[in-house]
Specification:
The chain is α/β, with parallel strands linked by helices. It folds into 2 domains: 3-111 and 289-301, ATPase, nucleotide binding domain (Nucleotidyltransferase, domain 5); 113-286, ATPase, nucleotide binding domain (Nucleotidyltransferase, domain 5, 2-Layer Sandwich). Helix content is 43%, strand content 21%. The protein is built from 11 helices and 10 strands. Strands 3-2-1-4-5 form a 5-stranded mixed beta sheet. The protein has a 5-stranded mixed beta sheet with strand order 8-7-6-9-10, sandwiched between helices.
Length: 310
């Protein structure tokens, strides 16, 4: 049996998928998060995440990772860097190995390998696309310090800013002040702000506060509703930029949305309405997850044309 491997190495977890030569998915495995190799213990964590995910998938097939040859293997990593290739080549035995950042496999998975655009809004945000000619373009993805508009981190940041403005008397009233205090376990929003600056609150943990904005919006809080509407506009804007670079104005383009932020119905509906308003865009939910996208890229790497089935 000829085997192919796809791996999605992300900030929160790593997922591996093994398929056969017909495109049938045979096994999956889960592992821990992947970090930059240069970070403290970064190399060890990347190695362990690959062992857990790809090794777990191999064990489902009654195999050991070290003794499993792959025709092709493809890896999409958050913040892909050259150091990860050396780790991959040390651990994975494959005739061909490919690496990219995670936006590539998110696009491939979401559209099943077809041309189009994926807009991702999770802890961070980015829009990435590829047209029929294989040309690519991206917008956003600048990181939480300088961008990531519409991301979970940005929603939490905007919520805290609104709560602090209300506290100091230069912003409108909002239930977000109370909600943030309750979520962090403090009774003063200024103390909440200081707490979020501490090492205890990682970027991921701050981003986990984002659902409070949707909760407040359900209570008809105007500030929360405005935050969600602005986030949807920002995500639509980076989508439009990518579209303009890759597709003609009257040309049809398929756009998929990916990431936990789009679980918010109000934001998702606003985003779809904005992106669809031109009448030439088709907006869809993702067909496959990024790990399956990595598997599709592995088939491409080997020159195999198959339809992935689960």
């Amino acid at each position: 049996m000829t085997l192919f491997l796809g791996v999605d190495g992300g900030q929160s977890s790593t997922r591996a998928v093994i398929g056969d030569e017909s495109g049938r998915i045979l096994a999956t495995g889960e592992g821990g998060p992947v970090e930059h190799v240069g970070a403290p213990q970064g190399r060890e964590r990347v190695f362990r995440a690959l062992q857990e995910s790809a090794g777990g998938a191999c064990r489902q097939l009654g195999r050991d990772l070290t003794d499993t040859p792959f025709e092709a293997a493809f890896f999409g990593f958050t913040g892909a860097d050259a150091g990860k290739r050396a780790i991959v080549e040390e651990l994975i035995h494959a005739r061909q190995i490919g690496l990219s950042d995670d936006s590539v496999i998110a696009l491939t998975g979401a559209l099943g390998g077809e041309p189009g655009i994926v807009t991702i809004a999770g802890t961070g945000s980015i829009s990435f696309g590829r047209n029929e000619a294989g040309e690519t373009a991206r917008a956003g993805g600048w990181g939480y310090l300088f961008g990531d508009e519409g991301s979970a981190f940005d929603l939490a940041r905007q919520a805290l800013r609104a709560a602090l403005r209300f506290e100091e008397g230069w912003g409108p009233s909002t239930v977000l002040r109370r909600m943030l205090c309750e979520a962090v376990g403090l009774d003063d929003i200024r103390l909440v702000q200081r707490k979020l600056y501490s090492a205890e609150f990682t970027r991921k943990r701050i981003a986990a506060l984002a659902p409070l904005v949707e909760e407040a919006a359900r209570l008809q809080d105007p500030v929360a509703c405005s935050i969600l509407e602005n986030a949807a506009r920002d995500l639509a804007a980076i989508t439009d930029v990518v579209r303009a670079r890759l597709f003609q104005r009257k040309e049809s383009a398929t756009i998929a949305y990916v990431g936990g932020v789009f679980r918010c119905e109000m934001l998702r509906s606003e985003f779809i309405g904005l992106v669809s308003s031109s009448g030439t865009n088709r907006v869809i939910a993702p067909r496959h997850d990024p790990a399956v996208g990595a598997l599709i890229e592995a088939y491409r790497l080997a020159g195999a044309r198959v339809l992935v089935s689960q």
